Amino acid sequence: MKIIIVLFLVSISSVSYGQKEKFLSFELAGSGGIASINYESEFFRKEKIGLTYRLGFSFAPIDKNNGTALVFPLMVHGTYGKGSHKLDAGIGLALTVTTRAAFYAKTPMSIGYRFQATDKNYYLRLAYTPIMGYFVDFNVQHWGGFTFGYKLNRK
Question: Where exactly are the structural domains of the chain?
Fold first, then answer.
């Protein structure tokens, strides 16, 4: 478990050097399940289009047979719009390890509204965030998510 945390922190520090905007966000429901803490960094911006990657962590109790799930959502988000109001869409992979040594992955997606005032250090996102599973059989969990993000690098 310690190696996963170390790799996670190293990946954040190595890919975030020289990036544009960086955020620490809290997402209620959404791609990490019940709630997640995420690091986000913008890696592309051109006029109305922006691309952001997001690395997160969440945990949730499942049941006594599976124990607790540790969820690591990895997402790429695209934003479209000028000013404070943007369309936000994303897709990714949610790697999950349980405390009983089970491992699985799901595909979270997101489409919603992002409010990011140009003169403030935070953003708000409200999104429909379905999570697709496909290992035993194909299933879709319908979620909605609310995100509050705080900008780490101020201009």
Answer: 22-151
